[in-house]
UniProtKB/TrEMBL annotation, chain A:
GO terms for molecular function: 2 iron, 2 sulfur cluster binding; metal ion binding; oxidoreductase activity. This is NADH-quinone oxidoreductase subunit E. It holds the Pfam family 2Fe-2S_thioredx. Binds 1 [2Fe-2S] cluster. It comes from Geosporobacter subterraneus DSM 17957. [2Fe-2S] cluster binds at residues 95, 100, 136, 140. Keywords: 2Fe-2S, Iron, Iron-sulfur, Metal-binding.
UniProtKB/TrEMBL annotation, chain B:
Gene3D superfamilies: Glutaredoxin (3.40.30.10). The keyword Methyltransferase does not apply. It comes from Geosporobacter subterraneus DSM 17957. This is NADP-reducing hydrogenase subunit HndB. The lineage of its organism: Bacteria, Bacillati, Bacillota, Clostridia, Peptostreptococcales. Keywords: Iron, Iron-sulfur, Metal-binding. CDD domains: TRX_Fd_family.
UniProtKB/TrEMBL annotation, chain C:
PANTHER family: NADH-QUINONE OXIDOREDUCTASE SUBUNIT F. Residues 440-485 form the NADH-ubiquinone oxidoreductase 51kDa subunit iron-sulphur binding domain. The lineage of its organism: Bacteria, Bacillati, Bacillota, Clostridia, Peptostreptococcales. One of its GO terms (molecular function) is 4 iron, 4 sulfur cluster binding. It comes from Geosporobacter subterraneus DSM 17957. This is NAD(P)-dependent iron-only hydrogenase diaphorase component flavoprotein. It holds the Pfam family Complex1_51K. Keywords: 4Fe-4S, Iron, Iron-sulfur, Metal-binding.
Length: 170, 130, 548
């Protein structure tokens, strides 16, 4: 589950969200046959458009559908696929399926946390990486697996990590 | 076209029989060879897409036009992804494992052109299909 | 090349060559030529059939007849009887050692039966994005038969007779589920395919959806006809983009051919399917939670009853089945319930797909008849443990299951025998562990997963799994005392007995079973020298909530 986040009701809107993106989302919602039961689908679309689901997007969806913001937040925070924070330029995912775990994925992610100076689901200071621990991605034959975007690194050992990071830090 | 009866379905089945007859047993005649490439998530993350591209490139380069490259699902041999099956008419299908793009040349050269499977990469098919 | 009507395949493997298969081949060629069939019949030398004990092997295609122990003198009979007159040469057919029943299809021979692919029958064989390839292999025939030739009850009866049980883990009889949903009268009913495969280390549903999406669509349509639904939903994880795209293609193609939509096969039956995406919540595999999620809500489970068969999606009767369950339906309709029920054990029929992972040589998917032993799966099909290490345990049923040790390796596996051993079938993940794996760490890994995934609806699930995880963490950090082990055991049973849904009721299983089988490893973490009983002889005093 996503970690609890603080949403302040008094905090002014600081996020700079382009209005075209809201228009795109609005068009999507307006084109739906029915919005009954479609909250999750709409949030998927919203996350596609914005990359994440900040407070203003959640409130926008709530108003558009005429439901309480708490209901939207309740759904967003329930599902691990939804994120309320923007991601880094690259998403570095470590597969934490059982097959990867028994082949040492736990050591790999610890090493990554140490090297990048972040915990999982956090973004590095330079904004380059988001570290994620993800559920089985199905490349069990290559365990343990690390992915960066679409690129898959198989049979990763602790000593390989520097090379992987270097490839993106340049 | 919409199928309106069981007979129509069976007719379509007949019409497309030759598409799969080679896969099933490998004992039809003709000279059309098929290369099946396991393209499920597991295969793709192990490099099946590069392998597929390499086959297409290699066949084009060698001007071989009786070979069809077919993307299929996975057969569950995760330990040996990407997997590639070569069906030559009149022969038992040959299954290869760990076929990275760099092995493609050898398979085309020896098996497709030369007719001798590359024993080193062969896998045993240890299941029966219902 | 000439038009050949028949191929005679002669095994040219080393084993068969040693038993004169080359002479058999030469004789066949000579006799065929003499009878004037050289243009129509081709003799082909093949690779090894893998059945050397019965060699030389001769197979006739397309008749799919299999002759064994064929001597050079038998060539005449094969040509004169089989090729010329079309009669099988009975004495050369394979004879099964026990029942003395002659079989002549390769598929029927016991040697080949270690793996039988029913649910995975088309995976890796057809292009999943070409509906015609599926049709060419007999696809949608079962749907056609069901809706044009059978009544709803007949379809249900076939599924009931086959003995098929839910492959998602619970093992509820599928036919019965359909029957109950049919009996609940309503104008609107739904059939849902549960493709929210969340068990870490299990990926058979994804393989089926990526490799053979039409088999699921066809089966859903059959199920919908049987229960009287006209709307289907596939609830699929958003983390499976490839499966989603192949399903979308398949649905589009099926609609184009009129196999989904209005008046299918020219009958009154109309049915269509929509996709709904999950968003990463393990608990959504539970059917009431799944239905809530389909409605766009938090995927929390409801109290049962009412069951979905009574009040499901938007309050209408709903039938939820798993992907693998559906994939078994078309062959059952086509080949009959007796064929399906001939595989497996008394109470668990058919085959089951398992995902082998962890410390095993052949990581991958296998499909085997129920009743096979774990030893056969792990050591014969799976190729044993890498680097010559010793087998320690296998976890079945994912985070809801338990470990099975060496002593359980020879149990024939089915739903009931695994439950008896303190584990469960689950969706079919099998994680193999060797001597290097610490079982307390494994238990902790699973608890971390369930703690993360517990939905928060009930107290024991929400707080209990967290406390269990904290206790395990304390133990593995070497800070625990004997009393903590006692408390861990108590809490495990408490969570098991008082959680709302299956997720947390089964969450303590990895703890309970590892404590049962690997007590020593727990003790090794305990530094409690002042304890009166010392290390290794501690028996928990408090029996509250302890059943076994």
């Amino acid at each position: 589950m996503t970690k609890p986040q603080t949403i302040s009701v008094t905090k002014p809107i600081v996020e700079d969200l382009p209005s075209e993106k809201f228009d795109e989302l609005e068009a999507f919602i307006d084109n739906m046959e029915t919005t009954k039961g479609a909250l999750i689908e709409i949030l998927h679309k919203a996350q596609d458009i914005f990359g994440y689901l900040p407070r203003d997007v959640q409130l926008y969806v709530a108003r558009k559908l005429g439901i309480p913001g708490a209901e939207v937040y309740g759904v967003v925070s329930f599902y691990s696929y939804f994120t309320t924070k923007p991601g880094g330029k690259h998403t570095l995912s470590v597969c934490m399926g059982t097959a990867c775990f028994v082949r040492g994925a736990d050591k790999v992610i610890e090493k990554l946390k140490e090297k990048l100076g972040v915990e999982s689901n956090e973004i590095t200071e330079d904004g380059l990486f988001t570290l994620k621990d993800v559920r089985c991605i199905g490349a069990c034959g290559l365990a343990p697996v690390v992915t960066v975007g679409d690129k898959v690194y198989g049979r990763v050992k602790e000593e390989d990590i520097d090379d992987i990071i270097k490839a993106y830090r340049g | 076209m919409k199928i309106k009866s069981l007979e129509e379905l069976r007719k379509i089945r007949e019409e497309h029989q030759e598409k799969v007859s080679l896969r099933d047993h490998g004992e039809v005649t003709g000279d059309r060879i098929e290369i099946l490439i396991g393209m499920a998530t597991c295969g793709i993350s192990s490099g099946a897409r590069e392998t597929l591209n390499a086959f297409v490139e290699e066949l084009k380069k060698e001007k071989i036009d009786n070979v069809k490259v077919v993307p299929v699902g996975c057969i569950g041999y995760c330990h040996s992804e990407p997997t590639v099956q070569v069906n030559v008419p009149g022969h038992k299908p040959v299954l290869y494992g760990k076929v990275k793009a760099n092995k493609v040349h050898e398979i085309v050269e020896k098996h497709i052109k030369g007719g001798t499977p590359v024993a080193r990469l062969e896998l045993e098919i240890d299941f029966e299909r219902a | 090349m000439a038009k050949t009507r028949t191929n005679i395949m002669v095994c040219g493997g080393t084993g068969c060559l040693a038993t004169e298969s080359d002479k058999v081949m030469k004789n066949l060629e000579v006799i065929i030529k003499a009878r004037g069939y050289a243009d129509e019949v081709q003799v082909i030398r093949t690779g090894c059939f893998g059945f050397c004990e019965q060699g030389p092997i001769v197979k006739i295609e397309p008749d799919n007849v299999f002759y064994v122990k064929v001597g050079p003198k038998d060539a005449k009979d094969i040509v004169d009887e089989h090729i010329v007159k079309g009669r099988r040469v009975e004495r050369l057919l394979y004879e099964e050692p026990v029942e003395k029943e002659k079989v002549n299809k390769q598929e029927d021979m016991p040697f080949y039966k270690k793996q039988v692919r029913v649910a995975l029958r088309n995976c890796g064989l057809i292009n999943p994005e070409d509906i015609y390839e599926y049709v060419a292999l007999g696809g949608y025939e079962a749907l056609g038969k069901a809706i044009t030739e059978m009544t709803q009850d007949q379809v249900i009866d076939i599924v009931k007779k086959s003995g098929l049980r839910g492959r998602g883990g619970g093992g509820f009889p599928t036919g019965l589920k359909w029957e109950i949903t049919k009996k609940n009268e309503s104008d609107v009913k739904f059939i849902i395919c549960n493709a929210d495969e969340g068990d870490p280390g299990a990926f058979m549903d994804r393989s089926i959806l990526e490799g053979d999406p039409h088999s699921v669509l066809e089966a859903m349509a059959i199920g919908a006809y049987a229960i009287g639904a006209d709307k289907g939903i596939i609830y699929i994880r958003a983390e499976y983009p490839l499966a989603i795209s192949r399903l979308n293609t398949a649905i589009k193609q099926a609609r184009e051919l009129g196999l989904l939509g209005k008046n299918i096969f020219g009958t009154d039956f109309s049915f269509d399917i929509d996709l709904k995406y999950g968003a990463g919540a393990f608990v959504c595999g539970e059917e009431t939670a799944l239905i809530n999620s389909c409605e766009g809500k938090r995927g929390e489970p409801n109290y049962k009853p009412p069951y979905p068969a009574e009040e499901g999606y938007w309050g209408h009767p709903t039938c939820v089945n798993n992907v693998e369950t559906f994939a078994n339906i078309p062959p059952i309709i086509n080949r009959g319930p007796e064929w399906f029920a001939s595989m497996g054990t008394e109470k668990s029929k058919g085959t089951k797909v398992f995902a082998l992972a962890g410390k095993i040589n052949n990581v991958g998917l296998v499909e085997v008849p129920m009743g096979i032993t774990l030893r056969e799966i792990i050591f014969e099909i799976g190729g044993g443990i890498p680097k010559g290490k010793r087998f320690k345990a296998v976890q079945t049923g994912g985070p809801s299951g338990g470990v099975i040790t060496e002593e359980g390796l020879d149990t024939p596996i089915d739903y009931d025998s695994l439950l008896e051993r303190g584990s469960m079938m689950g969706s079919g993940g099998m994680i193999i562990m060797d001597e290097d794996d610490n079982m307390v760490n494994i238990a902790k890994f699973y608890l971390e997963f369930t703690m993360d995934e517990a939905c928060g609806r009930c107290n024991t699930g929400r707080i209990g799994t967290k406390r269990l995880y904290e206790m395990l963490h304390k133990i593995t950090s070497g800070k625990a005392r004997m009393a903590d082990l006692d408390a861990l055991k108590q809490l495990a049973y408490m969570v098991k007995d008082s959680s709302l849904c299956g997720l947390c009721q089964t969450a303590p299983n990895p703890v309970i079973s590892t404590m049962k089988h690997f007590w020593d490893e727990y003790l090794a973490f305990i530094k409690d020298e002042g304890h009166p009983q010392g290390e290794g002889r501690y028996t928990p005093k408090n029996k509250i909530g302890m059943k076994s």
